[in-house]
Design brief:
Layout lengths: L22 E8 L3 H10 L4 E6 L8 E8 L2 E8 L5 H9 L2 E8 L3 H10 L3 E11 L2 E9 L5 E6 L12 E2 L13 E8 L5 H10 L4 E6 L10 E8 L6 E8 L6 H9 L3 E8 L3 H10 L15 H5 L6 H7 L2 E5 L2 E7 L10 E8 L9 H15 L3
Parallel strand pairs: 1-4, 5-8, 10-13, 14-17
Antiparallel strand pairs: 1-5, 2-3, 2-9, 3-4, 6-7, 7-8, 10-14, 11-12, 12-13, 15-16, 16-17
The chain binds fe (ii) ion (FE2).
């Protein structure tokens, strides 16, 4: 069982949960070149070889590489011919997240409960088998063309899923200390944030845990509104953003324009040594957003005493925020695709269960400087 439980709601009763979720099972990206993407996630982000599916395993229309780092599993999938759903997805959205797979005790029951509560069908429950056992998967749509696949794998001892073989190469850069998915954020259209918060509440049994309005997180030009939905045991947290009115184009609108619809904006991954992790990522070429240097001049006045020295935080551009329960350190990459869409957050929690609201002003200004360079502000 995962140990990444934080922010456990006090009234949570597992027996009463119609949609028990153990955690994130895998994240599948549709990408235009799975082989090269796999190399990037190994080299730059420290993911490790795990599994492969493609022509050599009898798959004729797609190729997938599965990579792992601690509890994080990512799948990189490309089409092998024209006219496929995968290819159409890439044409519309660029490289991006297609599947946020959720590990469940019963994928058939999860699907039935979700459909009964109004979810849009993506994939009926199907059992897949090989000589390592069986896995049942089913799926529903969430915002845009993004889907949740329910994965029931307690009867499976294989490396990933039936149909995949072990993938090993001679080039294996070390991990960078990424441990688990802390949260994943979705961007939806203006006026649709509550629609999707209600979807997570009614269809998946989530509850809202934090909220802030556009007054909290706007600059002179751009703004967003956000609410955070969490499942009952607190292991899965999905903030939902929508654009808010500003003088110029919101970063959320920019995302929606370039992704051509709603989708996953960022994946926040946890580390227990953010200074070491970010130093390694920067040395491997990952580019991060930078806030103005004077952020660090007033940092301790804002957040109080912290364990870390300011110097490495300032050097690497790591941000700090505090809430009632503790503090957190975080940093955001620049978008990792040609389109200004998906990016990663690296986060280390030291008690804090919030998402870094105190950093949004400085961050938004940093994002606007990037938008200015792109001519999309
Ligand atoms: Fe985040």
């Amino acid at each position: 069982m995962d140990t990444n439980t934080i922010n456990l709601p006090k009234l949570y009763d597992e027996a009463q949960d119609f949609m028990p979720l153990f955690g994130t099972d895998y994240i599948e990206f549709y990408v235009s070149n799975s082989k090269q993407a796999a190399h990037f996630y190994k080299t730059a982000f420290g993911f490790q070889d795990l599994a492969y599916s493609g022509l050599e395993t009898g798959m004729s229309d797609r190729e997938s590489y599965v990579l792992v780092q601690d509890k994080i599993r990512i799948v990189l999938t490309s089409p092998l011919k024209s006219g496929t759903d995968i290819g159409k997805h890439i044409d519309a959205h660029g490289d991006g997240v297609k599947v946020v797979a959720l590990w469940v005790p019963d994928a058939t029951k999860a699907y039935d409960e979700a459909i009964k509560r109004g979810a849009k069908h993506y994939m009926s429950p199907v059992e897949e088998k090989d000589n390592h056992g069986s896995v049942v998967r089913s799926g529903i749509y969430t915002y845009g063309e993004t889907v949740h696949i329910f994965v029931e794998r307690d009867e499976y001892k294989g490396i990933f899923l039936p149909g995949y073989k072990e993938w090993k190469t001679t080039f294996n850069p070390s991990p960078v200390g990424l441990q688990y998915v802390d949260h994943m954020v979705g961007n939806v259209e203006l006026g649709e944030m509550m629609t999707w918060c209600n979807f997570y509440k009614e269809v998946l049994g989530f509850a809202q845990i934090v909220s802030f309005d556009d007054k909290d997180i706007s600059t002179e030009y751009t703004a967003l509104m956000s609410k955070v939905m969490s499942n009952g045991n607190g292991r899965i947290k999905f903030p939902i953003n929508e654009p808010a009115d500003g003088k110029k184009k919101s970063q959320i609108e920019e995302y929606l324009d370039f992704y051509e619809g709603p989708g996953v904006q960022h994946i926040a991954v946890a580390t227990d040594d953010i200074i070491g992790t970010v130093r390694e990522l920067q040395s491997r070429g990952i580019e991060f957003l930078r806030v103005p240097d004077n952020y660090y001049d007033v940092l301790l006045d804002r957040v109080g005493e912290i364990d870390e020295d300011i110097a490495p935080l300032r050097e690497l551009g790591i941000l700090v925020d505090r809430d009632d329960e503790g503090y957190l350190l975080q940093i955001f990459t620049k978008p990792i695709e040609p389109r200004p869409t998906l990016f990663f957050e690296i986060i280390q929690r030291k008690g804090a269960t919030s998402f870094g609201k105190g950093n949004f002003q400085a961050l938004f200004e940093a994002i606007e400087r990037e938008q200015e360079l792109r001519g999309t502000l």
